[in-house]
Structure formats: structure tokens, C-alpha cells
Write a structure and sequence with these properties.
44% of the residues lie in helices and 17% in strands. The protein has 162 residues and is an alpha+beta fold. One of its GO terms (biological process) is UTP biosynthetic process.
Length: 162
Amino acid sequence: FLPHLVASMEDVEETYIMVKPDGVQRGLVGEMISRFEKKGFKLTGLKLFQCPQELAEEHYKDLKSKSFFPKLISYITSGPVVCMAWEGVGVVASARKLIGATNPLQAEPGTIRGDLAVQTGRNVIHGSDSPDNGKREIVIPFLCNKNILSVYDYSRFLICLL
Ligand code: IDP
Ligand code: MG
């Protein structure tokens, strides 16, 4: 029984989920994937990626005028991210609920940010805020053929940090 296969196709949405560099470095990727899998959503794309600055700026273009924008871009480009596409009925809003509030101190216990993070500027995960933004954001990493890391590249990257 796969919940995401039961509904009619027109109800099925896709969202972009990204484990941010702190989530990857802290070894929380499996924990986060597990929460979406257990909920019943379907993983349709996965990529370990070193996000170039111009793609980080494209992804967060709606926040360009914010004072924290430069720090946000250096955070997102500071190390590998895990980019994912998740599919299912109501997945966009449901993923936002599973993720919790932007400020992890205000995120409810039981949510990803509520359980795993403390600072807004290190809030471990991204999830699209609308179906249209989901479609827009997914293509940014998945159409880029540069900066793809294999697990082997990543373990070398970690060794370089030591
Ligand atoms: P969201 O990730 O919950 O959708 P947004 O308002 O879209 O939150 O902001 C995008 C990201 O920018 C946040 O997840 C967080 O990493 C960062 N951010 C948002 N507000 C602040 C802030 O006031 N200071 C520092 N970073 C922020
Ligand atoms: Mg947002």
C-alpha cells in the first residue's frame, strides 16, 4: 500500500526539498529522508551537489532585497547540499508542516527544525512554499550538469576540511 499512488494524478504535486550544508555535515540526511518516506511521499530525484553562487541566488531570488541575503548565499554555498524532488498528494504544504517554522526556536517539537536545529541561519532544510515554486526550484539543481558530487568526492571533501 503506497499512499501516494492511491489519489488521482491531478492531485499529485511535486516539491523541492534541500538538506542544507549544516544538515549534511551533521549527518542528518537519513533522518530527514526517513521522515518524508514514513509520511508516505515518494522520492523522485536525489542529488549531492555543491551549489554554485549564481544558482543559489536564482533559487533565493525572492529574498534578494533582504539584509541577510549575502549571508544566506554564503551559507548555502558553504558545502554540499542534498537536493531532492518529492511527490505526493498535498506534498508542498505537508512538507512545510513536517519541516516547521523558519526560526527553529519557534518550530514545534516533532518538526524537523523543531527537533534538529536552533538558529534561523542554520535551519538544516529547505522546502518549497508553493506548487509553482516547487516546479521552479526543482529544475535549478537537476538541470545543472556541473558540481555534482559523488559520495567518493564528498568523503574527499570532508577529509580536506580536517
Ligand atoms: P523558509 O526556509 O522557512 O521558507 P524563508 O523566509 O523563505 O524561510 O527564508 C529562506 C531562508 O533564509 C531561511 O530558511 C533561513 O535559512 C534564511 N533566513 C530567513 N530569515 C532570516 C533571518 O532573519 N536571518 C538569517 N537568515 C534568515
Ligand atoms: Mg522560503
